[in-house]
Amino acid sequence: MAKKQFKAESKRLLGLMIDSIYTHKEIFLREIISNASDAIDKLCYKALTEPEIGLTRGDFFIAVSIDKAGRTVTVEDNGIGMTAEEMDSNLGVIARSGSLKFRSDMAEDKLQESDIDIIGQFGVGFYSAFMVSDKVQVISKAYGSNEANKWESAGADGYTITPCEKESHGTKVIMHIKENTAEEDYDEFLEDYRLQALIRKYSDYIRYPIKMDEEKSRPVETDELDEKGNKKTRYEIYTENITVNSMVPIWQRSKSEVSDDDCRKFYREKYYDTEDPVCVIRVNAEGSVSYRALL
C-alpha cells in the first residue's frame, strides 16, 4: 500500500508535540498504556450492554514486553481493537481522539452505570511514542472482525496500513527504540526494572492488570555433595509473569484489606521518605458528597 500523509500539518505539528508538549520522554509508556486501558474499557462497556459477548472484567489485561536484541518495547491489550478505517481515522489524524468520540456518543447514565473510565481525551498521547522510537507499528484486530491490519510509521513522513495476521481481537503497539546519542540514553527503556518503575509511577491505578515477564532465581538441589555429604544447591533463573500495578488505590480499599504496614510502605514509596509516617488516618465520608481519603 502507498504511504499516506498525516491529515494535518504533519511535520510541524508532530515535531511540536514530540519536542514541546511532553517534557519527559518516560511518559510515552503512560500514554500507550492509557490508550490500551481505553480500548479495554470500550469492549468492557460493549460486553455490559451486549451480554451475549460473554466477557467479564477479569478477562482483560495489558501486557508489556521487551526485546533487547530487537530493541523493541511492546504494549498489547485484548480490548476492542480497530479496523483499517479506524486506524486511518484515529492514527492518521493528529490530535483526533477516538476515546473522546466514544465518550461523547455514550449516554451519561450509561457511562456511570458501566463504571468505566475513558482516559484519552485529546488524541495526542499516542504520538509520544516517537520521542523514544524511530519507528512505531500498530497491529490491531477489531472485535467481531476476521481481518487484522498493521499501521506503520517512522514519523512525520507518513504511514502505511497493510493487512496482516492476528489471532484475537485487540491491539499491539510495537515501539522500535532509538539508538543512544551523546545527549540521550534510550537503552534505559529496554530494562525490565525501568519499565516496571514507570508503570508503578504513572499507571499503578489502571484498573486492568498490567503484566510483564520478570526473571527470578531460585535454589535447586544438585546430585553433587559438599564436604559434609549434603547435596549442593545452585541457583537457576526462571521467568515469572507478574502483575506490576496495584489497580485499586490504597485509599479506595476497605480497612480490612489494608494493613498498617501497607500504609507505611505506600507513604515511603510515594514520598521517598525513609521514615514511617507519624500516624495514619482513614477518612470515609458519605452524604451529598462522598469521598475516601488516607492522611
Tell me the layout of helices and strands.
Blueprint: H1 10-21, H2 28-49, E1 62-67, E2 72-77, H3 84-91, H4 98-105, H5 108-114, E3 133-141, E4 148-153, E5 159-164, E6 170-177, H6 192-202, E7 210-225, E8 231-243, H7 260-271, E9 282-285, E10 291-294
Parallel strand pairs: 1-7
Antiparallel strand pairs: 1-2, 2-6, 3-4, 3-6, 4-5, 7-8, 9-10
Describe what this molecule looks like in 3D.
The structure is a single chain. With 295 residues, this protein is an alpha+beta fold. Helices cover 27% and strands 26% of the residues. It is built from seven helices and ten strands. The strands form two sheets. The chain has an eight-stranded mixed β-sheet, covered by helices on one side. Strands 9-10 form a two-stranded antiparallel ribbon. The termini are far apart.
